[in-house]
Design a protein that fits this description.
It is built from three helices and nine strands, in the order E-H-H-E-E-E-H-E-E-E-E-E. A hairpin with a 5-residue loop joins strand 2 and strand 3. By secondary structure, the protein is α+β, with helices and mostly antiparallel strands. It is globular, with a radius of gyration of 16 Å. The termini are far apart.
């Protein structure tokens, strides 16, 4: 399928939020509020416009979206900057066609080009490892809430980026509002 991936523009915001809402409508693990999270993140200081990407089908409709936002990993005395991958959304009917993978690979490449060194994701244990994600616990990085070890993962965009980044992940307030 021919998909174009580009930076999300302000003119896309309403269409993106509607697509995100549709994408999570029938997901068991969802609180059905991911579209609100996208909106809150856009209005936060964690937002990086260049790392909010949309996938367009040949008719130029938004069929996917990914957002990487700023987070910190800290152990009290030291802190490291990182990115959170959340959420990743693909419109029903377009899922299972590789659009999510294209969005992830493009976002990770853009993040690396922009100088970011690592990404954290809370996601499916069988999906994200194919992109190089490993349990964050390998670097002594913990979620700020109780979560199974195998679904809280990290990826180094540059070698040894997380070597000294042990501690707890601090998400933007937009995640908890």
């Amino acid at each position: 399928m021919d998909i174009i991936i580009r930076q999300e523009l302000p003119a896309d915001y309403d269409m993106t939020e509607e697509m995100v809402k549709e994408a999570f409508l029938h997901e068991d693990y969802s609180d059905k509020k991911e579209h609100f999270l996208v909106k809150r993140l856009r209005n936060s200081d964690a937002f990086i416009p260049e790392l909010s990407l949309v996938a367009l089908n040949p008719a130029k409709e938004i069929v996917g979206h990914i957002l990487l936002s700023k987070i910190k990993i800290s152990d009290g005395e030291k802190a490291a900057d990182s990115l959170a991958l959340a959420p990743l959304s693909v419109r029903p009917g377009y899922q299972g066609k590789g659009i999510g993978s294209q969005l992830i690979l493009t976002a990770l490449n853009k993040a690396k080009e922009a100088g970011y060194q690592s990404v954290i994701v809370l996601g499916h244990k069988d999906y994200y490892p194919k992109f190089g994600f490993k349990p964050a616990s390998l670097w002594n990085i913990q979620a700020p809430f109780e979560v199974p070890d195998e679904v809280f993962m990290a990826l180094e965009l540059t070698e040894n980026a997380l070597k000294n980044a042990a501690g707890v992940v601090h998400y933007s307030k937009a995640f908890s509002e």
